[in-house]
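Case 221 in the screening queue. Each case pairs one protein sequence with one candidate compound; here the compound is adenosine monophosphate. For every case the pipeline is the same: read the inputs, emit a complex structure as tokens, and attach any notable structural observations.

Predict complex for case 221.
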Amino acid sequence: MAGRVIILLGPPGAGKGTQARLLEQDFGLIQLSTGDLLRAAVREGTAAGLAAKAVMEAGALVGDDIVLAILRDRMAEPDVAAGVILDGFPRTAVQAQALDRLLAETGQQVDAAISLEVDDAAMVARIAGRHTCAGCGEGYHDDFRRPAVAGVCDRCGGTAFTRRADDRAETVGERLRAYHAQTAPLIAYYDARGCLARVDAMADIAEVRSALARLVGGVPA
Ligand code: AMP
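Case 221 output:
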């Protein structure tokens, strides 16, 4: 692949998925969410999906081998040549180093890692209200982003919505713990390399979108 490689770092609920979809629209980049890829593998009942299901429901991190195999396959598809926003990957030091090696194969490197900075306490409320259109995947929230017509998706008109199994309050605490123990150290990893930026992600969606657009717009294509 060629094109920019932008990483969104941040705990569950920080808005990585929402903002990655907006960056797709604003810059023509491809959102690459390992969480979405793993959920698809679980639905399809693949070997990787079967291995990942219980781990995801417990709020822990899926093994690096499984995640890296899924990521490598996705990165080999032609559309990612437009450039990618990595949402939820890398999540461990092993994954960050493997990403560096994978990109080096095509003479590339991470262009920017953007840390979405939030308070843990607010994350529990954000996560508890979120749901997705079952038809097109558009994201909504009980308090912060309701469809214009109650119960009808703004984007596709669908009327069925789903909530993630791992968004239950009991699982969210474990996901935040996994973030702080295994993923937050990557902020220093990218900072040391001089490609880290931080964005206040407690601001509303539009403000965070503008801040990200300024940053991504400043990264050479
Ligand atoms: P997400 O949609 O990014 O919140 O991910 C949902 C769940 O999928 C996580 O809680 C993990 O169990 C798993 N997962 C997603 N991405 C990764 C990753 N890069 N490494 C390990 N586990 C992951």
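Case 221 observations:
- Residues 169-183 form the longest helix (15 residues).
- The mean pLDDT is 94.
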